[in-house]
Amino acid sequence: MSPKGRAPSSQETPPARQEQKNANGPALKKLSAVNLDFYYGAFQALQNISLDFQENHITALIGPSGCGKSTFLRTLNRMHETVKGTRLTGQILLDGKDILKEDVNSVRLKVGMVFQRSNPFPKTIFENVAYGLHVNSFQGGKAAIREVVEKSLVKAALWEEVKDKLHQSAFGLSGGQQQRLCIARALAVEPEVLLLDEPCSALDPIATAKIEDLLFALKSETTIVIVTHNMQQAARVSDFTGFFLLGKMIEFSTTNVIFQNPTQTATEDYVTGRFG
Amino acid sequence: MSSSVTVPKSALPQRRAQSFISRLKSGEELAYLITVTAAAVIILLTALVLYELIAQSGQARHKFGWSFLFTSTWDPVAGDYGALPFIYGTVVTSVMALLIAIPFGLGAAIFLAEMAPPKISNAMTFLIELLAAVPSVIYGVLGIFVLVPALQKSVVPAIKSVAGSLPIFQGTFYGVSVFSAGIVLSVMIVPFIISVSREVLLAVPRDQREASLALGASQWQTIWRVVMPNASTGITGSIFLALARALGETMAVTMVIGNAPQIKASLLAPGNSIASMIASSFTEATDDLFLSALVELGLVLFGVTFVLNGLARILIMTTQQKGAHK
Amino acid sequence: MKPNSAIKNLVNYTMFAVTGLCTVIAVGILFFILGYLIFNGGKSLSLSFFTNLPVPVGEIGGGMANAIVGSGKVLGLATVLGIPIGFLGGVYLSEYSNERVAFTIRYITDLLNGVPSIVIGIVVYAIIVHPMGHYSTFAGGVALGIMMIPISVRSTEEFLSAVPQSLREASLALGAHKWKSIVTVVIPAAMRGIISGTMLDIARVAGETAPLLFTALGSQYWSPGWNGPTATLPVMIYRYAISPYEDWQRQAWAAGFVLLALVLLINIVARLALSKGIYVPKG
User: Fold this and answer.
1) CATH of the domain spanning A10-20+28-271, picked from 3.40.30.10, 1.10.579.10, 3.40.50.300, 3.30.70.1110
2) Per residue in B47-59, pLDDT tens?
3) What span, in angstroms and rounded, lies between the C-alpha atoms of B299 and B52?
4) What is the ipTM of this complex?
């Protein structure tokens, strides 16, 4: 049996990835976590997490409540730093450079996040999407901003529904629309990686399907990491899946392998519903 | 004793579940009566306040009508009274107080809610709430003996040298003035703005801040562009509350405003507010009409603070509800 | 986009400093006030302040014994009048009334709370002083008592409402009547908070001057009983401070020191010695 799952080494390269490697040259690791340990005060919430996220692919992180998957996700754009008393050791490499050592605001421009419950600002739809541009000294006039807003709303599959009410309050939208608005808002600054923390957990199946569809469309431009406790969603949407349990990453592989042929018992127990 | 079955909806058994006699014997009815009486007394007292204000001001109201609010003569000898100088004084001192207190108060509230570590924030908030407990007459003492001399010696000369040509800074400064009252008032209302605004800011949901930070905004950008707009209704409520407070403030203002029933363009001139006028003249009111006019002043003051307090409460309640829904 | 992180960080630090400065100034005012009162008041304080009656201008050795006693009497009466009504009203709001009635009563209580203190003075003058024909300690006590009621109501209601419903249910399930449950279980559970609220209420009213100006008025002598005007500490401070006599002004400082010390002490004890998160009425 292979030891507790790590990013596939050359011996264990799953078939899908092998093909990609051959087709496109060396494996494109967009974002990598290296030996991450994370502490809330004295409590260690993440133990020695190492994994890679492939460029322009969707990686899902699954696991039971409290397993650390959301905690881990939030380290990837350094949101953990907004909470006092936390400590992170290890490295997070974006295109090879450790983001923990860079200016945090610049990091967050490149690694965007969509949250579990939609959180639009108390502003108009337009201003919500344009927010990221305003706080980052967007060089361009009103017309350029309008273009970016429209482009982002199109990518978030929301444009048709809001194009006539851009200057109305964001709170007038439904839950699913608000979440897509938050996705548009995150996309406006053109992040290279998009992190989504259980983005559909508060939404109905139709709204969920719309978001899953737009993720498929997005991945050609963006690297996507999605935390979800909905295993069907992970199976539908992702190329790679990582299974977390009690702060450790138990197994990481292509989605097919995780769901149909997991190597670890714990993984198998979880995906077959024996616990969690 | 009847079986008191716990009704699912509320833990307290409906009074009809027990018989009246049983309630009477057990003292339940008496207890209820006592508390209801207390509540009724409160309502009656408030009604009494309103009634007396209206009744005792009757003589003046009938004589002057609405023009009372627009006349600026105050002549006890001739029996001609007008509230305008005092309305003017009240408004000017309060506006001045707000203009000074709002920036300081909001600045401190932002620091305490968003930037300071919790322990420091709590300690400083504790001290600021102590400031709110300092009696008005103490502020008055400091106003007369410390603030006014300081203004006379250094501050006002400095202001005059820079902005002395402006009409609001014309004239000789004798210390007691609308200007001094405005400053004392601003110090007195700052703690209210700080503590209410701080609470309102703290109530803004975390995920609003996180959304902003995740887009690369700095902490200050987040505060200014997201947190403050979220809290804007509540902050406005806090300002209304502070204003209501300022309008009714009596002692400190009386001690430094100069007690002159006049309207002057210059802030450096002495003046009078409604509350300070009542405070200084009430015991010397020589006849019924004089007294009635003073009571009418009190009625005006009551009316304005009533409206402001009502608005403030609506605003603050709205903010709390918004936060609860998130 | 070319986000300038350097500028962002600079603005951040600058605003941190600016808002921090505002806070330091605000807190500094407290120490400023304390400092002046301790210094100017302390040096004018002597035993005779507490034991002597005021003396005519020009003579030395005057004190404010009558004002201290007067304040005590007026506050005592106010507490006896205001707290029970406020407390029982709070009990009614929390334990007996339905939502609509409660909303109305709360609204009216807030209305009463917002009445400027000088207006309360006018009203008590009209209903007590004028009919009686003279100023009195009694009228002063009533005026302050009226002011104490709204704060007591809100405070009591807040603390009673905070007592978990399960306590009431447990008591009722054991067969106790509702009022007994309230008296033996609910009120004791909220007692700490109610006491602290009462202390803060007293401290707030102890410093009030305006409502006493035309109810208790003032006096240079003892005022036995309740039917005559009486000196009180805040009013003495006011009258002495605005007087042109240096000796009186010094006494105003001393009295101010005593009053402030009293008020702040009660506040600190009430807020600290009791648990965090007590409801502190704002204004």
Assistant:
1) 3.40.50.300
2) 999 999 999 999 9
3) 9
4) 0.90
